[in-house]
Structure formats: structure tokens, C-alpha cells
Amino acid sequence: MLSYILKRLVYMIPTLIGMSIISFAIIQLPPGDYLTSLMSTLADGGAPIDAATVERLRSQYGLDQPIWLQYGKWMAGILFRGDFGFSFEWNQPVAEVIWSRMGSTLALSFAALLFVWAVSLPIGIYSAVRRHSVGDYVFTFLGFIGLAVPNFIFALTLMYVSFRVFGQSVGGLYSPEYVDAPWSWAKLWDLIMHLWIPIIVIGTSGTAAMIRILRANLTDELAKPYVTTARAKGLPEYKVIVKYPVRIALNPFVSAIGWVLPELVSGVTITAIVLNLPTAGPLLLRALVAQDMYLAGSFILLLSVLTLAGMLVSDILLALLDPRIRFN
Amino acid sequence: MDSPILSVEDLSLDFHLRTHILHAVRNVSFDLYRGRTLALVGESGSGKSVTARALLRIVDRPGQMVGGRILLRTDHIELDLAPLAANSREVRAVRGARIGLIFQEPMASLSPVHTIGSQIDEMLRLHAGLDKKAARARTIELLGQVEIPNPAEMADRYTFEFSGGMRQRAMIAMALACNPDVLIADEPTTALDVTTQAEILDLIKRLQVERGMAMLLITHDMGVVAEVADDVAVMRFGKIVEQGSVDDIFHAPRHPYTKRLLASTLKLEQAAEVRAGQRGEPGPILTIRNLAKTYGGAKGFLGTSKFAVKAVDDVSLTLNAGENLGIVGESGSGKTTLGRLILRTVEPSSGQVLYKDRQGRDVDVTALSKSGLRKFHADVRLIFQDPFASLNPRMTIGQIVGDPLVVAGGHTARQIQEKVAELLGLVGLDPAVMERYPHAFSGGQRQRIGIARALALDPRVVIADEATSALDVSIRSQILDLLLDIQQRLDLSFIFISHDISVVRYFCDRVAVMHRGKVVEVGPADKICTAPDADYTRALISAVPNPDPRHKRMLHRTRFNPDLQPTA
Q: What is the DSSP letter of B560?
């Protein structure tokens, strides 16, 4: 087991190097650089800057150097000094901009993952065991709605409802009076009251998908002979189901750890903008639009690392769960 | 004889299907006695398995018990299981504790993610109320009783680390864990090799006698019945058509169905009549020289590494024109790989396959280019084992049978249709079935379709890989007769790969016996099946159940030196 984890860690190194190159290449892809977009923004605002200033800035930021050199400097900074570069747009080091956003992104992903698990496990089991019952059809119907409704519409609806019905401040993670306040029980409560909307919005489609996956997997497993064996042993029915087929149908649950994070960043950017969430998605979008290359690159890189870490965790859990994976 | 320990009276089961109600079991009655074995015999779909499950009340939906009584008499109490709710406490107390169950599929009937030991422990803790430690001690004792080596260590292993025979032993240990009064064995050896089957049947029989259990043995194999059973009940279409002692059933059958069933079994006990004297033009059509296939074990500095598996090891054979060559062996003997190597769907590691083509030229198959191989594949065709998996469910029968012609090219749609109609006629199907899809056909009919497809390009050699293994015994002899009939009409040679000795004896002129990748013996079918030279062949032949209760063969079988057998 230990050698398995070590092997996986070693395999991650080339993947990471590849990812860093790709993330750097991607942010270089659009024509021009940060200064061209800055110039056009300033020109639109009626205050063009002269070419000499631009050239001076360009050499100051190192934008006139060859790409591989820029990449080398960037990577060296990250590896040896933990320095992710400088964000042109925010005028501060990338690291400072990123960490606050990354924390809330992680917290939100984790909460959404817990929500997905907590809701889809019992419903999935129920739907598979009582297939074609009224309850199954109701959950299936709701599940398809959850899959089909665009997240941002769902978010807007929930915000409207919670504002009209509960009179609650919506959007963001805190009410205005708590944003800069020190931590307190009241602030925590405020956070929880704000969190439920994004969690439901972000988690719903994942939950719906997971219910379908679990239902399909479990339906297959329920027909396997080992279930009959368990029944023939004289086990009570709930134990037959939970101990044997559910255990085996659980694999996609664990794999979910791997995809929930990238999903949260790339898939729910619009939701995050609608809900005014301080997650990575909107920031990444803005950085890309403004060609704030070090910020965007660092974001993509960090997300890749986190995704890889998520995959690793899910693979390790899978190996713990299923000896067939462990031994092959 | 004392009173029966379990009596089934007028048991009826219905399946509520979408369009109609299927009466799967109708008014079935039988008694089980301590120390005696009742064999419930029937072909697929006869309702024998679902009857067995009904005794434990584990009939899956949409099956439903609609009548009858299941009387279990233990400790001087008579308990009727039929009126109880399927998951009631009383029924659960019977399952496993009073009635044990062994299944057909040792591969699938144990959980893949729990250790063997924990699955047996569970049973003991549930019914015998043992604590964790006592349960494990008893589990290890049980695994020892079913002759699993190193039981203490093996208890902590997972299912996939056990071979098929070992899994079935573990399954038996589990079924017997709580000393049940009745043991139900549902096709316990169908998925196993003959030598393993003989060992497992021995073991079950011995444990049954030791413990004085009653046994209900469900099987389709009349040979197994003759070897093991005391009484026999023959089932067909959900009814018991005949019931009696094993001797009566085998030597004085009354019901026509029983007679037919026995006849088709006994028919396969000798060579087919049509085959006698039939010889094509002499001379080999396929020559296999030193063919070998090694899997894994990339070559290191010092030749092959020790992890290499020799699936086929230095095999040399010839197939004469018009001849039926049988290749027999147990699972893992390399017989299927050999068939694929001949077709070069798997590339040989070394060796040669020489084919004499229609013009009488020798073609080196192992050196053929892609287009040459295509031509070779038109002459040498394959029939598959699984009639259900080998036909594409989304293609009509016409498309399936005509497919090789389409692939070969150069035929108009009309020509193809005519050819398909001719082929279907040849295999005994109405050409009108062309428009239908495979799901509308039974296993035997599907195998006929598969044969028609193999014949589409007028092949000269057909390789049949376990072509009749998935079929019931009566259908099996029909298909073999069909193949022999086709052989008479078309100029064909067969390579018949099978684990079933009786099929090979019926069908083949010469037989090659494979063991662990090597051919241990080649000779005329009669000689191999009656007086083989090699020790392994002798052990193999003697393990085949004899469908005559007066001459039980298995009990006197020769055992092959186990040191030379693959470790489980």
C-alpha cells in the first residue's frame, strides 16, 4: 500500500511539470500581453500612455524576454521562493491574491461534496432497491430537473426566494456588516446562513448525477449472485444490501473527490458571479480577460495541483475500499 | 426409511411478466431424507433452480409463490415455510442455519471485496452466536475440512486470490458452517473442470455422509446424477415428470422425456455413427509446427524472466483434410489460445502454421501479410462458445450471416441475400427469419446462426471453440449432428476445442490432449477415451462422470500427481 502511494506520488511529478508548461503556454496563447490590454483599456478611457512608457514597463516586467526564459524564471520563483510572480491587475504579489480565494474555494468544494454525498447516497440506494416504485419515479423526476436546470437560474431563483421569504441578505458569503468584522459566533451563523444557497446550487447537478450513477451501479450489483449468497446466509435485508452491493457500488462516490474541485472552478463560474462568491472562478476569468498572465497561470497551476491531489486521495480511498484495486 | 426432514408439497411459482404470467413451477412435490441425495434434473428453463430458491424463500422478483407447502422437520417441530413472510425472522433463522445453499458460479457468488474468512465468520456470528475470535477459529477449522491448504492464512485472502475450485470449497465451507440439516447444491460443479468437479463432488458427498445431511442436488448433467444421487426427480416446463430411485430412472425410465434426456446423454458416450469410415482426401490441410505463445516476462539480459507464462508451449499438430481434430484440456491448458494462434488473431511467439490452400500450395500463415491473412481467414473460420454474446443484438439475422460476405466484398445485395437464405437452410432454419433479431432465438438456434455465419465464405477449415458448451444436452447432440451433416455435404475439416470429453468422443476422429500449454498426447478418439497412454489423460478421462449408476466411474478414478498440477 505504501509503495502504491509512493509510486503514485512519483508519477505525479512529470504530470505536474507538463501541467505547468501547458498552463503557461495557454496564458501566452492570446495575441498581445497585459500591456496591450492595459493600453486599450486606458485608450478607451481617453488617457492613452506613450509608447516609451509601455516599452519601459514591458522590459521591467520582463515581457520582452523569450517565452521559455519567462517560464523558467516563473517556475524558479515558485519552486525556490514560493513566489508566484506579480499580478499586474491587482498590483500585488500573486500569492497574496490567490490564497484568500483558494481557501474559500476549497471550503465550498468540500461543503458541496459533503452535500452531494449526504443527499445522493440514501436516495440512490432507495431508488435502486425500490426500482420502479412511486418514490423512485419522484426522485428520478427531481433528479432530471436538477440536471437540466442551469445553475445560474437556480441560483437566481433561490436568492429571490430567500430574499422575499426570509428577508435575508443574499449574495457573497457574509452580510455586509460582517464582511470585515472579526470572527464571532454571529459571524459564523451568518456564514452558514449564506452558505446554503451556493452549496445547494453547486451540489444539485452533482447530486442528481450521483443518484443516477449509484442507482445504475447498484441495480447491476443487486442482481449478482453474491447478494443471493448473503441473503441465503440469513442476514436481514438491510444488512444484505448495505454490506455487500452498496459497498461495491460505492466506487463512483469516492471518485467524485477527484472531479468535484475542477468542476467547481471551471463549471460554476457563472454561478459564482451571480452569487458574488469569492471563489477562484470569477477571479480566474478576470485574470484571463485582462491577460494578467502570472495570476492566471498560477491559478491554473494551483488548480491542477489540487485536482491531482484530489485524484490521489480518491485513488487511495478506492484502493482501501476495493481490494481488487489494491492487489493489481 | 424414517420420515422426511423436508417435504415440498404442491409448490407453485409464478413469474409476473410484463405481458403475461409465466407458471415457472407447477405443483411440485418431493421429500428429502437424512443422508440421502435427491437430484432435481432438467434442462435450462425447467424451473429447477427457482424451486431450490423457493425452499429458502429467496425467489427474486418478479417470481412469486402462489401455492404449496414447504415443511421443515427439525427438533421434532414441523415448520411450514410457505406462509411466512420472505424476510421474516423465522425464515431468516432457517436460511444458512437449517438449510445451506451452494451455487453454480463460484466466481460470482462470493463478495469480491470481503475476505473469505470474514464472509464465513459472519454466518457463524449470526446463527451460532460466536464472538469474533471463536468464529474465526471455527472458520479456519471449516476451511481445513474442505481441504483448503493453509486455512489460517487463506481465511484472510480475498475471493479473487482463490481458483475456481478453491472458491467452491470456500462456498461449501460457508454453507456447512452452521451444520445445516439440508444442503441445496445448485449446479455446484457446472463451471468447474472435470477433475475439479470430481474432487468437489467427492468432498460434498463425504461431508454429507459424515454429517447425515439431506441433499438436494440440482443439475443438468446426467453423469453427475448417476455418480452422486440416490433419488432423481426429472423436471420439465415447471413440472416433475418422473420421480424415482436413481437405478429406476436410468434403467427403467417411463416418461418419454426422461428417455429422451438419457438417450441424448448416452448418444454422446460413443462416436457418432455417420463418422465411421468417413475419410477425406489424405494429406494435411493445416500443419502446426512448434507453435508457442509466451505472455508477460519481458526478456531480460539472461533470456526470459521467470514471470513469463507459457500459454502454448511447443505444440506440433496436423489436421488432415476432411478430419475432425479434437483439442481437449482443462481451463488454463492453452487450448483456446492455440485456436487463436492458428488464426493468428493472437500473434505466436514462435513456431509455424502451414496451410495448404485450394491450389495445393503451402502457405506459411505466420508470415502472411495483412491481405494474405484476410484470404486465409476466408478459408479458416471460427465458431464461438457463447451463442448469446457472439451475435450483435442490433443486427438482423440476415445482416449477421451476410456480414462476412459484405466484409469480403464483391457481392451484390441480391447475391448476399440468396447466399444467406441458402446458409440458413443449410443449418436448418427457415430463411424467413432473416429479418428478425437475435433476441428472438433460443441458445441452440443462435448457435445455428453462428454456424451459418462461419460457413458464409465456403471455408475449408472450421475452428469450433467450445461451440456446444453453453447448450443443453439434447440441443448439444443436435448441433453436433448438424455439424457432421454439413461436413458430409461440404468439404470441411474441423478443429474442435472443448473441455467436454463426451462431445469430443462423439465428434472427433483424432484428439489432442493439452495440459499446461503442452500437448501431452495425440491419438485416435477411441483410444484416447478408452485406453490413453499419458497419466494426465488417464486422470482426466477417469474423472468424467459416467451416466450409469451401476458403474460409478468417478469413485475409482485415477488421480494425477498433484505435485505436477498448478497450485491453487
A: P
- Burial track A296-312 (b if 16+ CB lie within 10 A, e otherwise): bbbbbbbbbebbbebbb
ipTM > 0.90, yes or no: no
B309 membership: H or E segment, kind and range: strand B309-320
Name the fold adopted by B281-546: Rossmann fold (3.40.50)
Q: How far apart are CA B209 and CA B35, in angstroms?
A: 6
Q: Any bridge partners for residue B77, and if so which?
A: B74
Cβ–Cβ contact A131 with B under 8 A: no
DSSP state of A45: T
What DSSP state is assigned to residue B466? S
**From start to end of B140-268, where are the E strands?**
182-186, 214-219, 231-236, 239-245
CB B326 within 8 A of CB B275: no
- The domain spans of chain A are 31-83, 99-327
pLDDT per position as a tens digit, A143-180:
888 888 888 888 888 888 888 887 777 777 777 777 77
Measured between CB atoms, does A235 come within 8 Å of chain B? yes
Q: What is d(CA B535, CA A159) in angstroms, rounded to the nearest whole number?
A: 82
Residues B493, B461 contacting (CB under 8 angstroms): yes
Q: Which residue's C-alpha cell is 494435411?
A: B284
**Does residue B92 sit at the A interface (CB-CB below 8 Å)?**
yes
| B298 band by pLDDT with thresholds 50, 70 and 90 | low
The tens digit of pLDDT for each residue in A171-228 reads 777 777 777 777 788 888 888 888 888 888 888 888 888 888 899 889 888 888 889 8
Chain B nearest CA to A202, separation (Å): 33
Q: Determine what percent of chain B falls in helix, strand and coil, rounding each to the nearest 5.
A: 40, 25, 35
CA B253 to CA B257: how far, in whole Å? 9
CATH code of domain A99-327: 1.10.3720.10
- Whether the per-residue pLDDT at B565 is higher than 50: the answer is no
B472 CB neighbour count, 10 Å cutoff: 20
pLDDT of residue A144: 86
Q: Who among B87, B101, B114 is closest to A232 (CB)?
A: B101
Give pLDDT tens digits for B458-475: 899 999 988 888 788 888
For residue A232, the chain B residue with the least C-alpha distance is B95
Contact of B229 with B246, CB cutoff 8 Å: yes
| B94/A232 Cβ within 8 A | no
Residue A137's pLDDT band (boundaries 50, 70, 90)? very high
- For A176-193, give the DSSP string: GGGTTSPP-HHHHHHHHH
**Which letter, b or e, does each residue of B217-239 get, where b requires 16 or more Cβ atoms within 10 Å of its Cβ?**
bbbbbbbbbbbbbbbbbbbbebb
Q: What is the DSSP string of B2-28?
A: ---SEEEEEEEEEEE-SS-EEEEEEEE
- Please give the DSSP secondary-structure letter assigned to residue B470: T
pLDDT mean over B354-379 = 86
Q: Which of A233, A248, A321 sits opposite B123 (nearest CB)?
A: A233
Q: Which of A284-298, B17-31, B234-248 has the lowest mean pLDDT?
A: A284-298
Q: Residue A92 — very low, low, confident or very high, per pLDDT cuts 50/70/90?
A: confident
Is it the case that residue B1 has pLDDT exceeding 60?
no
Q: Which DSSP helix (H) or strand (E) runs through B70?
A: strand B63-74
Return the bridge partners of B309, or none: B295
Please state the rounded mean pLDDT for residues B216-244: 91
Helix (H, G, I), strand (E, B) or coil at B441: coil
For every residue of A1-37, DSSP letters joined together read -HHHHHHHHHHHHHHHHHHHHHHHHHHH-SSS-HHHH
Residue spans of beta strands (DSSP E) within B211-283: 214-219, 231-236, 239-245
B96 touches chain A (CB under 8 A): yes
